[in-house]
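CORE FACILITY INTAKE
Project code: CF-77B
Contact: R.S. (postdoc)
Sample description: multi-component assembly, two entities in total
Requested service: structural model of the whole complex
Turnaround: standard
Below are the sequence entries exactly as provided by the requester. Do not edit them.
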Amino acid sequence: MKLYQSSASPNSRRVRIFLAEKGISMPLVPVDLGAKEQFSDAYAAINPRRVVPVLVLDDGTAIGEVPVILRYLEEVFPEPPLFGATPQARARAAMWERRVELEGFAAAMEAVRNAVPGLKSRAIAGPHDYEQIPALVERSRQRVRNFYSDFDARLTDVPFIAGEEFSVADITAVVTVDFAAKAAGLPIPDEHRALKRWYDKVSARASMGA
Amino acid sequence: MKLYQSSASPNSRRVRIFLAEKGISMPLVPVDLGAKEQFSDAYAAINPRRVVPVLVLDDGTAIGEVPVILRYLEEVFPEPPLFGATPQARARAAMWERRVELEGFAAAMEAVRNAVPGLKSRAIAGPHDYEQIPALVERSRQRVRNFYSDFDARLTDVPFIAGEEFSVADITAVVTVDFAAKAAGLPIPDEHRALKRWYDKVSARASMGA
């Protein structure tokens, strides 16, 4: 098993942190996004979607899509559980992971991809070119602010995103905060004390350096 | 267990078809989207995201997000498998289901929500209001066309979206085609013969009337 990924890719970081939490090591195959290596024929043969990361199994099966990669790893390396130990816990963790992804991560990504000059005709990752839509930038930034506000309220009630235990949802949320702060200039606002407290605690885990 | 849902909601239909394929029956609790019942305090207590569908377990746990609901149902009602029988098969089905969702379903939804007069400040479902962005409509329509073209190519090689077996990915794809045709005026173009052949075969299943 090996992971095609990029150190510059926040989606790749979601998987690297997950692996570190599990204590799994596997070969990391770098894909140079700056050199557009994801558009090479060699990489398209591995992932026709032309995005990173992709997990390639020993029989050559290529698994794309981060939440799918993480759930597969959870199935084959169940300890320590990062989704939870029962179907119900797994549903709760997967639900919160997805909400973080759609409301926070995807919004921050949309804000960046529609604004950065170097991605002019690449507003959406994947095999097709799409022009940037400037009006999306401010709407996406507002979505990130709403994400911060909503999850600050949630973390006033529970210690972790999915509830009582650290889970895959916290991983996606830390990656979202770091990406939004660094690439979109949207750090957690000071008034969101519960969210900040959660972030300070969770981002101190050794895995987060991955 | 019961499902809060709407007969007018394509996301609800994904779950209804899945239940029909499994042969599971459970109470369907209608949520009247036309009367904005999803914004009522009673419904917000069930799902603070204010969208349908939501699966409510007997202990009151509310599970939202369609792919999460479907995977939970697969865990507790494994037969017949609609994701596959091994971790690898489940990863393949979940990956393809997600690609259909992000590239097809979400694109069609974005095209409709940014165009329909009745959704003027409701361009994104959920608890927050967002104004429509007219420039998104044509881009989203182009994404649906690209989705049709990409999946026509795929279905030239394999009989079902995820490969050799009918799966959850086919369910999301049929719902996407029906929604794109009806709500966005984007039926499968005649030249996409493999996609049409797949659609005619799969949409004839009894479950698709659900």
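Facility notes:
- The mean pLDDT of chain B is 97.
- Strands of chain B lie at 2-5, 28-30, 54-56, 62-64.
Invoice: internal transfer
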